[in-house]
Amino acid sequence: MPEKGAMSWPTSLKPSPPLLQWRLGFVTSLVLVGMVLIWSMDATTMRNLVEATKTQQGYLTTKVSAFANNIAQNHENKEVSTAHVVVNQTQKDPNLTQLKTQMDSQDPVNDTQNVSLFDQNSSGVYVVPASLDWVSAKIEPNVTKNLLAKWLAPGGEACRDAKTVEIAIPGLDGKDLIELSAGEIYEFGFQALDESKQPRCLGGDYFETDLSGESWKSRPVVKDFGNGSYSVLLQVHPDFAASYNLTIILLFRHFEGLKFSPSRFAYDREIRRIPIRFYKGLAQLPELQVCKESDFGRDGWSGRWTRHGKNDECEISHDGRYKCLSPSFPCQSPWCNGSLGALESNGWVYSTHCSFRLFSADSAWNCLNNRWLFFWGDSNHVDSIRNILNFILDMPKVQSVPRRFDMHFTNPRDPSQKVRITSLFNGHWNETQNYQGLNSLKDEGFRNLIKKYFSEDKVPDTIIMNSGLHDGIYWSNIRAFSAGASYATSFWVEIMESIRQRGLVMPKVFYRTTIATGGYARTMAFNPNKMEAFNWILVEKLKQAGIISGVIDNFDMTFPWHFDNRCNDGVHYGRAPAKAKWRDGLIGHYYFVNLMLDHILLNVLCATR
Predict the structure, then answer these.
(1) Which of 469, 431, 435, 476 is nearest to 450 (CA)?
(2) At 87, is the pLDDT very low, low, confident or very high (cuts 50, 70, 90)?
(3) Which of 124, 128, 538, 584 has its CA 20 to 30 A from that of 570?
(4) Model pTM score
């Protein structure tokens, strides 16, 4: 208690001690000096501090280091680089923070762990930087089991039962300009939204993606995390720094493309077309090498088509061909090796994690001499064999080959060189009919026909097998197809075991994935959604059984050209050239996509010789 008669100060009104008043004045002086220093800084210093690259337009450059454990594990033992993203900051998305919270609450996961994919920087851009390596794709472990589980996932909640009608890409939406450094891999997360703009919490939507420029076409990889969140990976080689369009089409919602009659469920709407400029920075990717035998051990490819020449005056010839460049027009290393003009693609060529040789007639005959090739697949094999004979082996008189044949072919320039080719159509056990696919093996006569070719003293040295288009029509769902794939695998295991027991050299077996059907066929029973899933299931079973030596990913090759019918009639990419009205109403069609496949087949055969 204060003494009686003394003045009592309220706590808040007590005078400050002299020392405290001195400290307050000193701190105030420091603040004033700091403000003067900041105001005195020039524009260059400020740009260095905030790392802005274009002060006139208010751009912000954001450097994001690696952060997500799942991404780090996907690229373990690789040096992680910094990603540079330039975006216009003049437009703000008022729902960005809310959407980020929603996306994080969904807890996107990869195949093995519950970790969030996304991280946010000051620009609102979500980027997962990766090491300076080529983007890759592979079939996830236990793909059949996981696919069935996702397909059968129950609903019961609004976010699971609603249909996707839109997406939100926080890192790309609402930007006037997107600029990315070429060479690096960018992974942008996006969220599926229903008609009320609410996030969905179930996956299974099928997005078609396309990244195209004047001299580049590729299919960006899309990851489905199973809970309504997805991501798309973008990469362009520094040699092709230019302006691009990223196109995203929602073809089917929640596995509806896998239905028995999917056409009525097709959504098929373009939901994004985003201009992106890739600029040439300091990134350097490993140089592609010509494919070796081991390169075909990958079960999935993530390639690109690049253009290295162009003849704007090129017109279709009287026989339907496009001889736009000289036959001797060379490939540009490292994108291919050989004569690019012989591909009749007006400069386009395909490469993936390795590049391919383009064969002359002489080099092809030297590779195939005294070989026995066995083809088991759909009518795309028929086209490929005819085109190999016509375009590569210089045998234009062979205008067609039947669905089922066993023939010896002789080099017209050197009678000492021969190759035996056997081809059995597997769309039906009756070669004149269709739409049985792997179920054709249920016919005993067809099984015995196949076995006959592997019961001789000599067996084929290489098997190229395929199935898919006819399966898309026959099998009622993916569970039924999985059972059919298991039966087909056991049949081929039996054949291989019979060869081994007789002490013969085992054939090399390569699975050629089913094409991405094009144009009108994109929504039919053999649509890309279903064919890709069927590819995964059959490849997994064949690999688990130890049958196949490698994979030729024709699905990835054809996908960039499947949006219309310029390069296909819907279900074939190798129809013979003709100066006639094509499926799309134009005269003639492009056949170089199948010719590229034929050269890749020769790369496989010659690498394993």
Answers:
(1) 431
(2) very low
(3) 538
(4) 0.82
